[in-house]
Amino acid sequence: xxxxxxxxxAVKIAMIALxxxxxxxxxxxxxxxxESEDESPVLKLAMSGAYRPxxxxxxxxxxxxxxxxxxxxxxxxxxxxxELVQTEWAGIQAGxxxxxxxxxxxxxxxxxxxxxxxxxxxxxxxxxAQVYVKQGITDLDGLRIGVTESTTYEQYIESHPxxxxxxxxxxxxxxxxxVSAMNTDKIDCFVSDRIVGGFYIQEGGAGDIEPFGxxxxxxxxxxxARKDSPELVHEVNATLEAMIDDGTYEEIYMKWVGxxxxxxxxxxxxxxxxxxxxxxxxxx
Amino acid sequence: MGEAHAAIETGxxxxxxxxxxxxxxxxxxxLRKNFGTLRVLEGVNMDIHRDDVVCLIGPSGSGKSxxxxxxxLLEFPSDGTISWRGEPVNYKSMSPYELARHRTRMGMVFxxxxxxxxxxxxxxxxxxxxxxxxxxxxxxxxxxxxxxDRVGLADKHDAxxxxxxxxxxxxxxxxxALAMNPQVLLLDEVTSALDVEMxxxxxxxxxxxxxxxxxxxxxxxxxxxxxxxxxxxxxxDGGEIVxxxxxxxxxxEPESDRLRDFLSAVESLYK
Amino acid sequence: MPDNRRHQASLIRTASPYAFxxxxxxxxxxxxxxxxFAQDGDTEFxxxxxxxxxxxxxxxxxxxxxxxxxxxxALITGSLVGIGTSARSVVIRSLSNLFIWLIRGTPLLxxxxxxxxxxxxxxxxxxxxxxxxxxxxxxxxxxINTTAYNAETIRGGINxxxxxxxxxxxxxxxxxNKIMRxxxxxxxxxxxxxxxxxxxxxxxxxxxxxxxxTLIELTxxxxxxxxxxxxxxxxxLLAAVFYLIIISLVTLxxxxxxxxxxxSKQAVGGNI
Lengths: 284, 271, 272
What we know:
The complex is a heterotrimer.
Chain A: H1 2-29, E1 42-47, E2 56-57, E3 63-64, H2 66-77, E4 81-86, H3 92-97, E5 103-109, H4 112-117, E6 119-120, E7 125-134, E8 144-148, H5 152-159, E9 168-172, H6 175-183, E10 189-193, H7 194-203, E11 209-225, H8 230-245, H9 248-257, H10 263-273
Parallel strand pairs in A: 1-4, 1-5, 8-9, 8-10
Antiparallel strand pairs in A: 2-3, 5-11, 6-11, 7-10, 7-11
Chain B: H1 2-11, E1 24-35, E2 38-49, E3 53-57, H2 64-71, E4 79-84, E5 87-88, H3 96-104, E6 106-109, H4 121-133, H5 137-150, H6 166-178, E7 184-188, H7 196-211, E8 215-219, H8 223-229, E9 232-237, E10 240-245, H9 247-252, H10 257-267
Parallel strand pairs in B: 3-8, 3-9, 6-7, 7-8
Antiparallel strand pairs in B: 1-2, 1-4, 4-5, 9-10
Helix pairs in contact in B: 1-7, 4-5, 4-6, 5-6, 6-7
Chain C: H1 2-11, H2 17-31, H3 33-36, H4 49-84, H5 90-104, H6 108-127, H7 134-160, H8 163-171, H9 176-206, H10 218-229, H11 234-261
Helix pairs in contact in C: 2-11, 4-7, 4-9, 4-10, 4-11, 5-7, 6-7, 7-9, 8-9, 9-11, 10-11
């Protein structure tokens, strides 16, 4: 009886010890509270990390890419410490609405529908939707098309069935999965961002692909905020302007996209979006 | 009879209070017990006197075990009265404390032993005194060891129940019941699950305890035991006491047909 | 028959709870270095298996942390709820059974989402600070889920204890609570141990769902690696190996504990 008791005691002590050690470590390892060691407040920005080269993760698991650099630069200039949060694309809006983070800086296209639910900054880059096919394909009839769910591309395909006759549309979590699908012959073509497709052509990661036809439509990508934080939008806009003026924007763009940005086009488009800037009002 | 002498020798050590051996310990009037629509006990009347060994016999389903379990309130009667030394037992509205106190007056030994498998033999025996009576562990241990010696298991204090034979387990069960210092011992077919060669050992042990002045109520199929140790025999059938009286008399000259039939069916097995 | 038993005994020779503790410590040591020795430097992408392993180790740490905390806490809370199912009070009994029914009847993924998007959000908004982060939300959902399954197991264990034990203990004069504590629960727990170990194994695999609420555990890390390298098989294969190692260590531990509890049942022959 004694030995049984001793054994059981030992297990109990071990369990309590484990609990005490692991519990705080676990909480700490997953993002901190509002204040960092530098005493500057934290701004959390979300992106998917599955949208190469705009948003991806490195060998350490950290978020890197165009979106990541823009996010970090913007936050730092605004006086915050940037905390990048990796979130699945499908749940990224829900996370914003439930205050899991403060901004989405993950190549989110500005659409009227989305404007109903959130505020957007002025676009921080311009791109377009492009169809990419396996080399050799000459027409879009009866193809298996891959697309990421909850994207403007998915919506476009659904609303323009005449452009994709007899198509079988397969939905994936991310462009990265689409690339895998291309490589494993699950799809013949996909619709995605021009920059993303261009990256894969250059890198060769998706096999032999080529763009098909012209851009389907232009996209203006903005940084999204909740309806209750219009002041963040104003700060971000001011910061973006500053970054363009002093050349930082061009630097980051070139680093990841490999081309020079068309700043004039951007400024012209900015004027279009002036109307969407939310008025600064007291929080309600 | 030689065995009985040996039993009496050891029996002297079982001495309990024995003045007034005709006092009534337990009085039962009109006891009924139903399980749903099944009527098991139909108005049983019984007096159990101090130092008596009352044997309950009868066919299966006659309610013998149920009657026994009503005595220490493992079953609550549906109707009727139970009195302990003249005081009525209010089983319908007892507090848990009173219920426990009632049960500590009676020790019970079961057909299938029901030893606590997660405790060794000594711990089984002292569990009652320590947990219920508040006896200190040391005191309970020496009491327990003494009891185990007396039931013939002096060298088995550290054994686990699963390591014991049936007869040994029953001895532990008896020691466990006696450790509570009960006034009455209730025995529910305690040898029915044992191999034949162990039965006489247990019967001798029980004989010794009875000789020492313990009041016992014994449900049994063993008519030899009833004849040898019993002071009174009750024959139950269909939930009521059909015949009762001196064991020797009843077993040799049954009055009722039912008892006669029962005996002829059973005696043939006990040769 | 005796030969089998001897064989079994030699297989689990390290039959003591100390083996269980040892396994846990080894697992922790295994997982820690990748967290402590993180490197700074240029952005490097995963190019080979060692890079994958490093990242997977990080994910494994989170998986382990979630599993250990949930496993321990849910053991206690599950026992309490399981005991509650046989309580005297109708209220406690009903609440316990309701809880078990509700939680077992809804998918863990849904519970995770509710914990993360609904519960955590409400609490955080109430205090205007991040009181419950993703890790906390995941813990809450996992603990509640595993509690329900443990409770059901313990409930079954309590019911498996033969009725005669109640009789014997009651006839000694023990009250209901005492009987539960001294006689029934020790036996129920011993009976439940294999199933509880099973629940633990299921829990460890269930942690793979928390990637849906932004926690970068083992499975999500594998998906990430696949996303970055377009290699679909290797990361998942490696992740599977990690799970196998963790679960094997845990199984060793629980089997050792079972063996230890069985000491009282070493029969020479004959049962009750």
